[in-house]
Design goal:
Elements lengths: L1 H15 L11 E9 L1 H6 L4 H16 L4 E4 L14 E8 L1 H18 L17 E5 L19 E7 L4 H10 L7
Antiparallel strand pairs: 1-3, 1-5, 2-3, 4-5
Length: about 180
């Protein structure tokens, strides 16, 4: 649905931002979706394989893509972290999967998030990229299952192709993100 609407959004952005070239119109470039599991793995070290498998399952259900496991580069005694211990799982989305994910994020996940009142200005960096943190991954309908025993947080970074912060903010607003200033 969003893919068809995106052509209309492009035309609106082109007029609003006074851009002559179609390729110069800002669009979503990619999204990085991560689940941090470092705390769970260090506290329940005997169940680390189950926790890792569960996090991979949740992220693959949400994004439709197999996640990459990120391991610790070096040991940190203060965090009970050892070298090559799994720390997080991540997925990078582009193209069709990115637009599908944005649509599900805006229509299902954000309205279901507890005490969500909009995306604040400090969630947008200097380039206009959007950073959203969700305390529970089960705000996505796909992540609700009997297989999932642990609750995982979710970090989403959305990157746009706009040249300025204002161009990217207009893009996110047109895509339906509730940005509050």
């Amino acid at each position: 649905m969003l893919r068809e609407e995106f052509e209309k959004i492009k035309e609106e952005l082109k007029k609003e931002l006074n851009i002559k070239n179609d390729l110069r119109v800002p669009r979503p470039k990619f999204a990085v979706v991560t689940i941090g599991i470092g705390k769970l793995v260090t506290s329940h070290y005997e169940n680390k394989d189950k926790i890792l498998e569960e996090a991979e399952y949740v992220l693959s259900m949400i994004t439709g893509q197999k996640p990459k496991v990120i391991k610790a580069r070096k040991s940190v005694a203060g965090f009970k972290l050892r070298k090559n211990m799994p720390v997080s799982v991540l997925v990078t989305l582009r193209g069709k999967k990115l637009l599908d994910f944005i649509e599900r994020l805006v229509t299902y996940a954000l309205p279901r998030a507890r005490e969500f009142k909009g995306i604040k200005e400090n969630n947008i960096d200097n380039k206009g990229n959007l950073n959203i943190g969700l305390k529970e991954a089960n705000v996505f309908p796909e992540a609700i299952s009997d297989k999932i025993k642990n609750s995982f947080g979710l970090g989403v970074t959305l990157v746009g192709t706009g040249k300025t912060k204002e161009e990217n903010i207009k893009l996110w607003e047109k895509l339906g993100f509730p940005i509050k200033f």
